[in-house]
Amino acid sequence: MLLKSKEQNEARSRNYGERLGLYFQANVLERWIEARKILKTTEINTKSYFSAKEKLTEIRNKIDESEELKWEMRNDLLADTWTKSGFLNYLEAFHEEIQNGDTLQEAENCLNRALQYKPSWLPAQIYLAMAYLAEKQWDKAAEELNSVLGTPKQAAAPVSQTITSSS
After folding, report:
1. Residues of the chain whose pLDDT is less than 70?
2. Strand, helix or coil at 42?
3. Residues of the domain holding 62
4. What is the dihedral of CA 26, 62, 115, 39, to 10 degrees?
5. Which of 55, 98, 128, 167 is the most buried (most CB within 10 A)?
6. How far apart are CA 55 and CA 97, in angstroms?
7. How far apart are CA 27 and CA 31, in angstroms?
């Protein structure tokens, strides 16, 4: 009887954690879509945009503080929210109305933070490579993309070897 009760409590707790994770995921997605829609309009309502971004940050903080989530789910959700924030910062860099000089650096910071939670998170890696390309950091972009493709880094052949091997 006691064992069955313990199993039921564990099942309820797991079920609650999963529902909470889905709730957070839905809210993150909703705020991200809201911010993306605002960025796609011709006249950006900056107040609404920054409000949506702030809500995304608030949700991320709640996820970070939640003790009911399993660590794997928590890390996945945090990686996702940092990735979405990073991508929004990347997009901001190309909007004159909301652009500040640090948005690409902020995008990098967010995306690197996402990769701390989930090191092989493809969306974060690809968006990070895009941010590096926008900043003309070719080597970092290539390194990130090679990481995504699983291509090992290779040193370029010396110029003298390429000339002699092609003759």
Report:
1. 1-3, 99, 152-167
2. coil
3. 2-151
4. 50
5. 128
6. 20
7. 6
